[in-house]
Design a protein that fits this description.
seven-stranded mixed beta sheet, methyltransferase, single chain, Methyltransf_12, 10 helices, methyltransferase activity, Methyltransferase
Length: 262
């Protein structure tokens, strides 16, 4: 099957886009997990839940693999964009958008009815991250997979320091929520230990932790766009560093892949 989306392809036929530099690590891990789940269950089409999935950045590529995807998002505009995007990709019959959020998840979806749950960019904004993870886990079938993606503290500290905002960097370093000030648009950031702790407390076994956007947000765009081979080399560097614990501390985002006991 061809790559489901040019932003996610494992084998790029042309220079990687800026979007792919930020998403390929997560996509490759997720696609492998879905392949393993499909093989283990003997099902060609899995039931996937994408909480906070917005306009379908992951949902549509997952549907292009042949899986059924339900997207829960509080924004009507995002769900409208999701519907249009799914139709344009030819997977409208596999993608369902539902208005809601992770806190009231079981008002709109089935408990324990999904082979995989994506919880990407959600925990930063909920009042109770532990509750959000518990609900995501409760939506999984036995043996199901959780893909959790959240903002990392270290990446914010490093970014503020490199921009010359040293006081803000120090504030983020010491703030319980990893925020650099009142103007910070992200309500909460996490360390890898905090995210894995939330997952384990919810009863899942952590399979892998990846640093995401370790270098991509720090490298000047003009260098990536103008130097021959720079984008490809940066993508390979991101992939190579993603699983190394030493680089989790400076990643813009952290990805945790975990499994529910069968």
């Amino acid at each position: 099957m061809p790559d489901p989306s040019p932003a996610f392809g494992r084998e790029a036929s042309s220079r990687p886009s800026r979007a792919s530099l930020r998403t390929t690590v997560v996509w490759n891990v997720l696609q492998d997990a879905l392949d393993r789940r499909a093989e283990a269950t003997g099902k060609a089409a899995l039931d996937v839940l994408d909480t906070g999935g917005g306009s379908g950045n992951f949902a549509v590529p997952v549907a292009l693999l042949g899986h059924r995807v339900t997207v829960v998002d509080p924004s009507p505009n995002a769900l409208f964009a999701l519907e249009r995007r799914a139709a344009e990709a030819g997977v409208a019959d596999l993608v369902t958008g539902v208005q809601g959020d992770v806190r009231g998840l079981f008002d709109v979806v089935e408990r324990g009815g999904h082979d995989a749950v994506l919880c990407h960019g959600v925990l930063e904004y909920v009042d109770d991250p532990a509750e959000g993870v518990r609900n995501a886990v409760a939506a999984l079938r036995p043996g199901g997979t959780l893909s959790l993606l959240a903002a990392g503290v270290g990446g914010a500290v490093l970014a503020r320091a490199l921009a010359g905002h040293f006081t803000e960097a120090r504030t983020a370093l010491g703030d319980p929520d990893g925020r650099w000030g009142s103007g910070d648009p992200v309500p909460r950031r996490f360390t890898a230990e905090q995210l894995t702790g939330l997952v384990e407390q919810a009863g899942l076994a952590v399979g892998a932790v990846h640093g995401v956007r370790i270098f991509a947000d720090l490298v000047p765009g003009v260098l990536v766009d103008t130097e021959p081979g720079a984008a490809e080399a940066l993508l390979k560097l991101e992939t190579a560093a993603a699983e190394l614990p030493a680089y989790h501390a400076v990643a813009t985002q952290l990805h945790v892949l975990a499994g529910k006991p069968a």
